[in-house]
Amino acid sequence: MAEYKYDVVMSCGGCSGAVSRALGKLEGVEKYDVSLETQKVTVESNSLTEDEILDVIRKTGKTASISSA
Fold first, then answer.
1. pLDDT by residue (tens digit) across 8-38?
2. Are 57 and 6 spatial neighbours (Cβ–Cβ below 8 Å)?
3. Any idea where the HMA domain is (predicted)?
4. pTM of the entire structure?
5. CA dihedral 67, 33, 56, 30 (to 10 degrees)
6. Domains plus CATH for the chain?
7. Distance CA 34, CA 44 (A)
8. Is the N end or the C end of the chain the one with fewer CB atoms within 10 Å?
């Protein structure tokens, strides 16, 4: 299973909630963690690519990028 990390700009609980809802509905996501405090999202998937997940996060209207850390 692959683990992907993203930097996502989220300013409130509604922002992190939108990202959580989108990932929760996404078929192929096994586990995810959305942290408003650290502005990080971690996703585990065995069938989706890093870019496919990034596109879904961006469709929530958030600025997101693949984490370098």
1. 999 999 999 999 999 999 999 999 999 999 9
2. yes
3. 1-65
4. 0.94
5. 110
6. 2-66 (3.30.70.100)
7. 12
8. C
SS3 content of the chain, % helix, strand, coil (to 5): 30, 35, 35
Name which of 30, 18, 1, 3 is nearest 62 in CA terms: 18
Task: Read off the amino acid at residue 32.
Answer: Y
| pLDDT above 80: residue 69 | no
Spatial distance between the Cα atoms of 36 and 14, rounded to a whole number of angstroms:
10
Map tokens 């929760």 to a residue. Answer: 24
Contact 1, 46 (CB under 8 A): yes
